[in-house]
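Progress against Task 2.4 (sequence-to-structure conversion) is shown through the following example record, which the project officer requested during the mid-term review.
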Amino acid sequence: MGPWHLSLLLAALTIYDFVPASQGQEINPMIIKQVKKLRMRCLNQTGASEELMDHSVQNRLLPNDPGVKCFLHCMFDMFGLIDSQNIMHLESLVEVLPEEIHDTIIGLVGACGTKKGKDGCETAYETVKCYIDVNGKFIWKQMVSLLG
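Structure tokens generated for the chain above:
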């Protein structure tokens, strides 16, 4: 598996944490460990507050905070979902996520595309803000659980 596919797989596993436990499917603990390492790396790299991130996820709020904005950019960058020109590529996830959520991903991409900000951090933040406005239930329930 090439590095690009591994990035997509990690992103998919980060996002795809909505399979009910009753279905007997578990995410490999090694994958969870790697995602948590990337999370800590991005927290350390950006100076984002872990407490603010936890509070944000628990209360389903997207704080207008420079650290949070750069954390989002860092995670998207680590997963290969934002390129060097700060264009989002969420649609890449359809290659690795279950078919039943392809329409949701494509809907988010169609509705939001990439919302331009003054830099990569602002772009990631504005785009995520649009995703939440379009389909907050999906974003909060299914996309953020491991990132928070």
